[in-house]
Amino acid sequence: MKRDTDIAGAEEARLLAIIRESFVERMPFNRVLGIDVLSLHHDRPELSFAMRPELVGNYVRNILHGGVISAVLDVTGGLVAFLGVQQKLKGKPVEEVLERFARIGTIDLRVDYLRPGDGLRFLARGYPLRTGNKVAVARMELFNDRSDLIAVGTAAYTVS
Question: Around Cβ 152, how many Cβ atoms within 10 Å?
């Protein structure tokens, strides 16, 4: 006989698998960016992607397009918002949590470009600043493969 904690753990694992699949395979633009989810930890999720010719903004310097940087930071912040909702609804049926996910959207995004997007691989990391009943706020960072901080962002997401 399964205990409630076993069932809850299995449901959380199922939900995290759905989140990973959504971000990596089901969102077409994330596939264009080549995003891979490295961590789904609710306090510090991480994404990565490789430099490719399609992502270059300045072909002379071979650096990332600013729009790619902004988009990856937005995706990272969205993941933070998703995981914040998941934490707030812990123990609820997966279907109820997924229904809330469908309503998450970007309200505002601010990006500060600190260095050229030079590198072969990039790591994006997000941090929740606040997850309320209607709005989540996240802080995001983008690093290259030499651990140089390329850009930072702050964003607000609707989560109701």
Answer: 15
